[in-house]
Write a structure and sequence with these properties.
By secondary structure, the chain is mainly beta. It contains one helix and eight strands; from the N terminus they run ββαββββββ. It has two domains: 66 residues, no CATH class; 32 residues, no CATH class. The chain is extended and about 55 Å long.
Length: 100
Amino acid sequence: MYYLETEDGQIIYKVKGLKHEVNLTLTDFELLLYKESLLEKFQNKWRRNLSDGSIKIKDELYTLRVTNNKRKLIYDENNKLINTFPFTINLNKEIVDTQD
């Protein structure tokens, strides 16, 4: 996910899996920088059923949070995310933390 505000004031953001119709603010993105914070937004999801030729629209909850699936998260003394480092896998297929 990313958020960009250009010099002329244009705001561009992208969140994988979240529809563009869901409005997010800079404050929403800043909130996610804090440890264990999450943001919940509702969006319409279309479910199609080809066998009966129908489409159902459901209001679905989408939860955003920072994960450490691919990178080690580094927080400051206020639990604000300030950096990340990649995990390294050694020849024994073990995850090695190279930034300790």
